[in-house]
Design a protein that fits this description.
The chain is built from 15 helices and 25 strands. It has helices at 11-16, 84-96, 99-102, 112-121, 128-131, 180-189, 208-221, 230-241, 256-272, 285-288, 350-361, 363-369, 371-391, 394-398, 463-470, and strands at residues 2-3, 5-7, 21-22, 29-30, 62-67, 72-78, 105-111, 141-145, 150-157, 160-162, 168-170, 200-205, 224-225, 243-249, 298-306, 311-313, 319-322, 327-336, 342-344, 421-423, 429-431, 434-436, 442-445, 457-458, 481-482. A nine-stranded mixed beta sheet has the order 5-6-20-14-12-23-15-18-19, sandwiched between helices. A hairpin with a 2-residue loop joins strand 21 (429-431) and strand 22 (434-436). It is globular and about 75 Å long. 48% of the residues are buried.
Length: 483
């Protein structure tokens, strides 16, 4: 994402003189970031080109992304006028799903070792209840029971539906469920007997060639522009910058996990530069940026990281609780040269700092209204939980080799188009007397940081330990979840 700024200190006088705008300054801002996908009725701005979505950006809808066979990402808004389709699906689920699954549970437990055995008993083909972990919506606890060999995750749960955008969400809350395929990706990143992934995340970046081409286009524009030529400028910037490249780190790119990372990142940047309306009141980057105060050729990088003080550990290490909302947005500034190369700066702009702080503070509300951010939070929870399993040798203590979940040949999760490119999104926005042209970072999860001694939280009152001990394991043959 890139900004060009065209400024005239004497706008009124210049408009009176043949209505020309003097282009006094240009600066480049690229929001290079990354982090996901879900579905509630939420306000969104989308660029589409047919398909099952729509390009009517004046209506509210379920926002999401599609990735075509060439790996090109496009935003979509899916419509459900009056919520009729959603109500019909909820009614159908209530009639077909077992009532014990549809009811809301404050703490549903899932034994991962028993779940794997249950899937193996079905020839490796999971049921919907297995795919969606009995409706689990967050992983709040992880428990180990060495005597029985159970590794248990627990959290709130309810019945689920597939919404009009294809997201699987709670039928009452609308919050996304935790999916087995994402859990498997996290477990494989921290498998038994191997070194875990150092970094998991993604990045969406303009190419060096694209940045150089964009600067060449701006030089060709000259020093004057007649009002009404904004569309020419926007299209020229988009074409010269070209496709931005998507990179996935630490997990296979052809997974649902990777798609969630990319969607969350891309839509966050669109919010920052004013191309997507946030579903809650917050301060965007363009709300606060002062073009006159930004250095020429400044580039901004925004990316999601976990809140690493998120693990409360029992005294014996057999239980852990994930606390807080788990996600922060941070930023850094760079400079871009005429040739398109970038260099990190020592200080960040005030507007960038205000935007990242506002986004972090509003994250719980954003996750409640825009499910992609709840999905991102769930992914971070899964990665931290998987790292905890490996760090504390839950695999060895439970005698769990992850025979099914650890094998792509036996249990396939790499079934999605890998995101590779996304078109630069561009819009023209007047900021005072300056015409800015935003062109629209990353997710970076270093799970081991959450397990450092200085980040671990003490289990005051032995809450986690007591909950683990009070969780019964008198399960029937083949049973893998319970309330």
């Amino acid at each position: 994402m890139v900004f060009g700024a065209y400024r005239s200190d004497l706008m009124e006088k210049l408009l009176m003189r043949r209505q020309a705008v003097v282009l006094r300054a240009f600066f480049l801002l690229a929001a290079v970031a990354a982090v996901v996908s879900a579905a509630l009725i939420e306000p969104a701005m989308a660029q589409t080109s047919g398909g099952t979505g729509t390009d009517d950006t004046n209506l509210s809808g379920v926002a999401g992304v599609l990735i075509d066979g060439k790996g090109v990402l496009q935003t979509r808004v899916f419509r459900d006028p009056g919520g009729m389709v959603t109500r019909e699906r909820i009614q159908a689920v209530r009639q077909s799903m077992p009532p014990e699954l549809t009811r809301q549970s404050p703490l549903r437990k899932v034994s991962l070792t028993r779940l794997e055995k249950a899937i193996q008993g079905k020839g490796g083909v999971p049921t919907d209840a297995m795919r969606y972990l009995a409706g689990l919506q967050r992983v709040r606890y992880v428990f180990l029971y060495p005597d029985s060999g159970d590794v248990v995750i627990a959290g709130p749960a309810e019945g689920w539906i597939t919404d009009v955008s294809g997201r699987v969400v709670g039928m009452t809350s609308g919050r996304p469920v935790v999916q087995l395929q994402d859990l498997v990706v996290a477990l494989r990143a921290f498998p038994p007997g191997e070194k875990g992934a150092r970094v998991i995340g993604c990045s969406i970046d303009p190419t060096q060639h694209g940045l150089a081409e964009m600067q060449q286009f701006l030089r060709s524009v000259g020093s004057r522009m007649v009002p009404g030529q904004e569309a020419y400028l926007v299209n020229g910037l988009r074409m010269s910058l070209g496709m931005q490249e998507i990179r996935i780190d630490g997990v296979p790119p052809d997974t649902h996990f990777a798609q969630v990372l990319v969607e969350a990142d891309y839509r966050m940047k669109r919010m920052g530069i004013g191309l997507e309306q946030p579903p809650v009141r917050m301060v965007s980057f363009v709300d606060r940026v002062n073009p006159a105060a930004v250095s020429r050729n400044a580039l901004f990088r925004w990316y999601f990281v976990p809140d690493y003080q998120c693990v409360r550990q029992s005294a014996d290490g057999l239980g852990m609780e994930l606390v807080g909302d788990g996600v922060k947005l941070v930023g850094e500034d760079e400079l871009v040269s005429a040739g398109g190369t970038r260099q990190t700066l020592s200080s960040a702009s005030r507007a960038s700092q205000v935007f990242t702080t506002s986004f972090t503070e509003k994250y719980p509300q954003l996750a409640a209204r825009a499910p992609v951010y709840a999905e991102l939070r769930n992914l971070i929870d899964l990665v931290v939980a998987a790292a905890y399993l490996q760090e504390n040798d839950f695999y060895g203590k439970a005698g769990w080799t992850m025979e099914l979940f650890g094998s792509e040949a036996a249990f396939s999760v790499q079934t999605y188009p890998a995101p590779k490119h996304v078109e630069s999104a561009v819009a023209a926005i007047w900021k005072g007397r300056t015409l800015m042209t935003p062109i629209g970072g990353g997710v970076q999860i270093e799970a081991a940081h959450a397990l450092r001694a200085e980040n671990l939280l003490s289990d005051e009152g032995d809450k986690v330990d007591k909950l683990r001990e009070q969780t019964p394991l008198d399960l029937a043959d083949g049973q893998w979840w319970w309330d």
